[in-house]
Amino acid sequence: MLNNSTLKFALLATLLTGMISTLARADDDEHRPVAKNKVWQTECGACHVAYPPGMLPAESWRAVMSGLDKHFGSDASMDKASAREIGDFLEKNAGRSRRESSEKPLLRITETRWFKHEHDEVSDRTWKNPKVGSRANCTACHQGAENGNFSEHNIRIPK
Questions:
Q1: In Å, how far from its chain's centre is CA 109?
Q2: Counting CB atoms within 10 angstroms of each CB, which of 47, 60, 64, 129 has the fewest?
Q3: Which stretch of 18-27, 51-60, 117-126, 128-137 has the lowest confidence by average pLDDT?
């Protein structure tokens, strides 16, 4: 039988262990395991990193996929079967939405609160560096972007 002090200590130890575990995960929040799909990787990865589906909510991916003929200034049209497979894959693996339902879906990951918060210390000079090119070029600085690893421990800012 456990006495009252031992029980309190065990409860406190359990709570602290949970808190430490949560903090450790929060520190590596930038690692987003990437679900894989060959058509998505081939089609989307041909022009830019195939962005992890969890970086946008389903309604944003639907909007992106519905406008492939004018995809950020390019025509990214593809056959219907590929578009359907990619759309289904993106929606199935999408992130959760934290926006008001009356707002239009965000089409750019760089417009998300998460992205802005994580990159608020990046200087304009870095963004204008020809080796970076734009905020959408994750692989310029994030060495593990293709694998969903956006950890601050794997950043190499181009000179």
A1: 8
A2: 47
A3: 18-27
Q: Is residue 125 one of the residues assigned to a domain?
A: yes
Q: Give me the number of domains the chain comprises.
A: 1
Is residue 31 assigned to a domain? no
3-state secondary structure the chain: CCCHHHHHHHHHHHHHHHHHHHHHHHHCCCECCCCCCHHHHHHHCCCCCCCCHHHCEHHHHHHHHHCHHHECCECCCCCHHHHHHHHHHHHHCCECCCCCCCCCCCCCHHHCHHHHHHCCCCCHHHHHCCCCCCCCCHHHCECEHHHCECCHHHECCCC
Dihedral, 103, 135, 147, 98 alpha carbons, nearest 10: -20
Check pLDDT > 90 for residue 96.
no
> Is 5 among the domain residues?
no
Residues 6+ apart with CB under 8 A from 4: none
- The residue range of the domain holding 82 is 38-98+106-154
What is the distance between the alpha carbons of residues 127 and 137, in angstroms, rounded to a whole number?
Answer: 10
Residues 154 and 145: beta-carbon distance below 8 Å: no
